[in-house]
Design a protein that fits this description.
alpha+beta, single chain, eight-stranded mixed sheet, 2 domains, 15 helices, BirA Bifunctional Protein, domain 2, about 425 residues
Amino acid sequence: MINIPKGTKDALPSEIYKWHYIEECAKRTAERYGFREIRTPVFEHTELFSRGVGDTTDVVQKEMYTFLDKGNRSVTLRPEGTAGVARAFIENGLQGGVMPFKAYYLISAFRYERPQAGRLREFHQFGAELYGAEGAAADAEAIAFADRFLREIGVGEAAELHINSIGCPACRAKYQEALRDYFRPHLGDMCPDCNSRFLKNPMRMIDCKEEGCKKYTRSAPRMLDYLCEECRAHFEELKALLDGAGIAYEVDPSIVRGLDYYSRTVFEFTSDALGAQSTVLGGGRYDTLLVQLGAKPTPAVGFAAGLERLIMLLDALQTPISEQKPDCYLLGMDEASRRKAFLLAEKLREKGIACETDLMGRSLKAQFKYADKLGVRFVAVIGESELAENAAEVKDMVASSSVRVKFDEIAQYIKGGM
């Protein structure tokens, strides 16, 4: 028996409608905001992520699926979407195009970590990236886009927006020194990861999940107190725009996000309905990312949401989602009727009607039972008398009614009742 790899999960036909629902909402909302889809390779050169995501992050240090290909080149399965989009933006000369550049993606991504609810080794993301606009209005649009998407799928009321600013490299350098001064006396009581981050990137210490470290991180200096005038003005403008748009938020100094490319605005949508895994969508600004990849400076902002976690939230909230069902089942009572049902099904499909007919040689009773399991509204019964009249007995399972309909008029009848 070959088993599924640890940390992966099948999306079965019985539940795929939830995936389709989220994906369609994502595409529809993206189009409203002028974002078009981009598709990038599932693997990239390892250097893209070590330079873009950051070699001090847990993603690069512990979680990437990295291997040598047959040409002895180091490649990595993408652990997130932003770095790949940045590479495509640079490599395809899009920096010289019309700005802002807006793109969204629906991807699978890979991280080697301990599997748990809502956190798998292969996971799926909906993400959006906006390049070229440095003003707070771009940040506000990204947040408004994310907020509208969550409302579109029906979880907006259960998600709370938290925002923060982590400043620019200049004011962040002063803040990092303040963090080192604060954490230095406590390093002996803190975890190995925090000790490792102390010199490389002390801001990552604030995001530590170890209980022994949290008692120190809760009282750590706040980045908001170290913002330069330009970063402070940017954050104040963002808050004013969100206020004006009626988007509720909470300023949360503990948000730093887990990837090194972020600067200034960072944000998360969280929900208590998910318990410990409370973040359902996160993002922020990353004005230095393209420079880290060797390109000219280009401001950027974006977000990503995990589809598995969104499905968990939909289930927790018992959000009603319509499951796709056939419109009609064509029931044949004997061999000649089954043949007619098969041919008629093809004609109905050609006219845009989803229908099924018997392929298993089931009895009349078993076919009715199967049609009931499918949840179809219309069952068209064909027998010897129906063949003679060139018509079917069409039963409306919702209205509990039945009417004789000519074969060439069944499509029109079903469309009129849908």
